[in-house]
Amino acid sequence: DEMLRSLAGPPSPVDCVRANELCAAEPGCSSRYRTLRQCLAGRDRNTLLANRECQLALGVLQESPLERCRCKRGMKKELQCLQIYWSIHLGLAEGEEFYEASPYEPVTSRLSDIFRLASIFSGMDPATTSKSNHCLDAAKACNLNDNCKRLRSSYISTCSRELSATEPCNRRKCHKALRQFFDRVPGEFTFRLLFCSCKDPACAERRRQTIVPSCSYEDKDKPNCLDLRGACRADHLCR
């Protein structure tokens, strides 16, 4: 379909909201997109692979902007963008869920930075750093940066504000404040807080509480980790 090929354009990722608009404006693409969403409604990969209509819809969409569309963190229509992305990729990732692509771009440089800094902070030579407290140094470095200090103070304050005896904090606001901290503060500060090396349990607990306040995850009845993981994967933003 020549019209569809013209919509595909260059290989660089397209915003999923925009890609959805492009697909909706082209009858062949929009009808195949509806078909594919029906095929994936039951999240059964075998059904998708066995059904000819589903295969045809998938083949058409792989040549459209929707197949390679991505989202930007904090964008105006982020949730809508993620819903469009996962409406296609949710069923296709089955069996490969640990290796599925990220809906966000760019992802490679961000991940390589995380692993590079993780190895730097976790692999420091104890002989040369025995008198240093890397977690304290990371907190001090954050406090010297106005943006880091402000957003860190914001999430600590939000996540430690008790609402009642039975409700330790507003978890929704706590999660939002944590997301803002990681999205808006440069990795040189957030990664140091995440990966500062500790040599005793007290330091490790301080690090955990500093970066992941209990309010963000602790419940009176502790749920099964697999249930939590399933709930997160079902939520577009958490996923």
TrEMBL record:
<feature type="domain" description="GDNF/GAS1">
    <location>
        <begin position="135"/>
        <end position="215"/>
    </location>
</feature>
<keyword id="KW-0732">Signal</keyword>
<dbReference type="InterPro" id="IPR016017">
    <property type="entry name" value="GDNF/GAS1"/>
</dbReference>
<dbReference type="GO" id="GO:0016167">
    <property type="term" value="F:glial cell-derived neurotrophic factor receptor activity"/>
</dbReference>
<dbReference type="GO" id="GO:0009897">
    <property type="term" value="C:external side of plasma membrane"/>
</dbReference>
<keyword id="KW-0325">Glycoprotein</keyword>
<protein>
    <submittedName>
        <fullName>GFRA2 protein</fullName>
    </submittedName>
</protein>
<keyword id="KW-1003">Cell membrane</keyword>
<feature type="domain" description="GDNF/GAS1">
    <location>
        <begin position="16"/>
        <end position="93"/>
    </location>
</feature>
<keyword id="KW-0472">Membrane</keyword>
<dbReference type="GO" id="GO:0007399">
    <property type="term" value="P:nervous system development"/>
</dbReference>
<dbReference type="InterPro" id="IPR003438">
    <property type="entry name" value="GDNF_rcpt"/>
</dbReference>
<dbReference type="GO" id="GO:0043235">
    <property type="term" value="C:receptor complex"/>
</dbReference>
<dbReference type="Pfam" id="PF02351">
    <property type="entry name" value="GDNF"/>
</dbReference>
